[in-house]
Amino acid sequence: MREERGRGAAATLRGVVPAGAVAVMMLATGCMWQQQTLARADVTGTWSGDGAGTLRVNADGTVVATGLAVYDRDGDKVSECSGTGEWGVYPDDRAAKQLSITVCDGNPWEFGGSKEHPKMRRSVGDPDDGNFQTLSRQEEKPPGAVPTG
Q: Which residues are within 8 A (CB) of 147 and not within 5 positions of it... i.e. 6 or more apart?
């Protein structure tokens, strides 16, 4: 899964659309990444992404990766990784900005999205290309809950 950096999109649109309209378009399409700070308790749960795999972050400090996408230097998905390891947050449990895991090598995850719908992403491929692997936290449904929609 590739996610383009907002700067590139803005540079492409400058001169064609007024600057204020560019900012509104970027917010509406999700091109801008808003850094979030999460407490350790807010990091636990299941995080997944379309074609990017799943991370189950457990309160006991373990993490289970299932089908987590692995990318080459060009940012292309080349395989998947699954396994169990440990996780930690930085800079501390109260104000986490990044998540690191000991399974499935890769860059640390940074938190973004909104408080209601948090996401995490990490850079994949050449950092100058601005490609990211993005996961969203899934809502936990109580046992026996009736699906809506």
A: 141
Per-residue pLDDT of 100-122, as tens digits, reads: 999 998 899 999 998 889 999 99
> pLDDT digit string (tens) for 42-56?
999 999 998 899 999
Question: Is 32's pLDDT higher than 80?
Answer: no
Please choose, from the candidates 79, 80, 77, 101, the residue with its C-alpha nearest in 3D space to the C-alpha of residue 89.
101
Q: Considering the chain, what is the average pLDDT of its residues?
A: 81
Structure token digits, residue 134: 């993005």
Rg of the chain (C-alpha set):
17
SS (H, E, C) 132-147: EEEEEECCCCCCCCCC
SS (H, E, C) 22-89: HHHHHHHHCCCCCCCCECHHHHCEEEEECCCEEEEECCCCEEEEEEEEEECCCCCEEEEEEEEEEEEE
